[in-house]
């Protein structure tokens, strides 16, 4: 049986190492990238069961990647858990602005604010993965 891949998109190396350890400890295969550009390339290269996505990153950030994922027919069904220091209410505001501009996006499958309790983050990942894992 193939181990499901979880894509971790975060610019902070210490956070990538932490999330890699957490995801691997849960029995998933972590795929690590530093920004949205690398993240979109990764989903084009291998099957991804879930994406852990930071929002605030330099360059091609998480918001741009999230929009690209949700607007792509082949990618929009990949579950996304946003894991960010950006408060959820601010991301909700962004989603509302997108809707007003005629670019309605489906909300993420879950939103976990940093610093996340590891138990809560694991529970969120398990919940979103459902029977995929």
UniProtKB/TrEMBL annotation:
Cited InterPro entries: Bact_response_regulator, CheY-like_superfamily, Sig_transdc_resp-reg_receiver
Residue ranges of every copy of the Response regulatory domain listed in the record:
5-129
Q: Which Pfam families match?
A: Response_reg (PF00072)
Its keywords, alphabetically, are: Phosphoprotein
Ranges in coiled-coil conformation: none
Specify the superkingdom.
Bacteria
- 4-aspartylphosphate (modified residue): where? 54
What is the designated name of this protein? Response regulator
Organism, as annotated: Desulfoluna limicola
Q: What is the lineage of its organism?
A: Bacteria, Pseudomonadati, Thermodesulfobacteriota, Desulfobacteria, Desulfobacterales
């Amino acid at each position: 049986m193939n181990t499901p891949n979880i894509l971790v998109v975060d610019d902070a190396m210490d956070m990538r190492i932490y999330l890699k350890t957490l995801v691997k400890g849960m029995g998933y295969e972590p795929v690590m990238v530093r920004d949205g550009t690398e993240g979109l390339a990764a989903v084009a290269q291998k099957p991804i069961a879930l994406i852990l996505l930071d929002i605030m990153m330099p360059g091609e950030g998480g918001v741009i990647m999230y929009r690209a994922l949700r607007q792509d027919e082949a990618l929009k069904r990949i579950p996304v858990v946003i894991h960010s220091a950006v408060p959820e209410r601010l991301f909700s505001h962004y989603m509302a602005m997108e809707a007003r501009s005629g670019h309605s996006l489906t909300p993420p499958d879950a939103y976990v604010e940093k610093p996340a309790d590891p138990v809560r983050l694991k529970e969120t990942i398990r919940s979103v993965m459902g029977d995929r894992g």
